[in-house]
Automatic annotation (TrEMBL), chains A, B:
The keyword DNA damage does not apply. Gene3D superfamilies: Tetracycline Repressor, domain 2. This is TetR/AcrR family transcriptional regulator. InterPro entries: Homeodomain-like_sf, HTH-type_TetR-like_transc_reg, HTH_TetR. It comes from Protaetiibacter larvae. Residues 42-61 bind DNA. Keywords: DNA-binding, Transcription, Transcription regulation. PROSITE patterns: HTH_TETR_2 (PS50977). One of its GO terms (molecular function) is transcription cis-regulatory region binding.
């Protein structure tokens, strides 16, 4: 190859990632060990999971607590859960649809409770201002095809689903009698049907 | 009055209460301040509420923690709540009966949560082996007159009532949309009615 005058071929040095990308790459790599170990994770476990030296992690995040905070944010991120809800087929039979929503909510609540326990978060999980509206928007779209059979607004159904799923997700509360998502879907489906018997 | 030979009238000296009665009397007197102050209560507040010297309290209970433990037991005692449920008229309309049960459960859950907070009890409240069976026994008696309209066993209705009341009692969870006991009663009443639509 004939290079233009003034150019030469040199071996390009591996350039370090920009700081934000580097942090994201480390987070991606350590997320599984964070999910398992929570606040008890050691710097060594983190470095091993990320395949870098401990010093690299500390340089990227400042300190271990900042990494733990960023990890907690990622683990509580509702986006994957919402994506899952949005993929529920809109033409599923009404009661089945409710059962799938309740089951997804229970998995999500269970997940959040476990992460909070592992990260020793006291009190309720951090709440984002938009969370309620986002939840309603998803359920409205999902239940729109069933609107004619409802005796209450879709939003009300959304809150009932959340209510029963929440209680059914708290392990110690379900000691006496655990609930099945399909049976709860039946209760809600009949409970919100148009024209009470 | 002519006394029989060998008897004489004497002024009877005020006898000290037996230790158990004394402890109960102190507990009765300090319960309101315990309910308000929980673990933060001072010995002085306790003595003032009981109208005795601090030393008398310590002699009766050994130490402040023992008094606090005994007070916690009394505050969590389910007997008054159960008495209240047993006084619900059995001939109330079905849905109204469910609403009254849900409301009573919510008051009780709210009470238990507050007491646990004030006494800094971590995790679920102490559970007695018999609690589930006691709860079922009360609801069976209350809903027996409505058995014919139910599409599920009375026990199942009992657990559904407890489930919705529990979720509706946890304040941070109800931030987006609080529930009314009557509306929850409607959902359950229609949800458990015989022959699903």
């Amino acid at each position: 190859m004939q290079l233009p005058a003034g150019f030469a071929v040199v071996r390009e040095r591996a350039r370090p990632l920009p700081p934000d990308d580097r942090r994201e790459a480390i987070l991606d790599a350590v997320l599984p060990v964070l999910r398992e170990r929570g606040r008890d994770v050691t710097s060594r476990e983190l470095a091993e999971a990320a395949g870098v030296a401990e010093g690299t992690i500390f340089r990227a995040f400042g300190d271990k607590d900042s990494l733990l905070d960023a990890g907690l944010q990622r683990l509580l991120d509702p986006a994957p859960f919402r994506g899952e809800l949005r993929r529920i087929p809109h033409d599923l039979p009404f009661e089945d649809k409710l059962a799938v929503i309740i089951e997804a909510l229970r998995v999500r609540f269970g997940d959040v409770f476990q992460i909070m326990r592992l990260f020793q978060v006291e009190g309720p999980p951090p709440r984002r201002a938009q969370a309620g509206e986002d939840w309603l928007e998803i359920v409205r779209e999902l239940l729109e095809p069933d609107a004619a059979r409802l005796g209450v607004p879709i939003d009300t159904v959304a809150w009932y689903l959340r209510l029963v799923a929440f209680g059914a997700s708290i392990e110690p509360f379900n000691h006496f009698r655990p609930f099945d998502s399909a049976e709860l879907a039946t209760v809600i489906a009949h409970g919100v049907a148009v024209a009470p018997r």
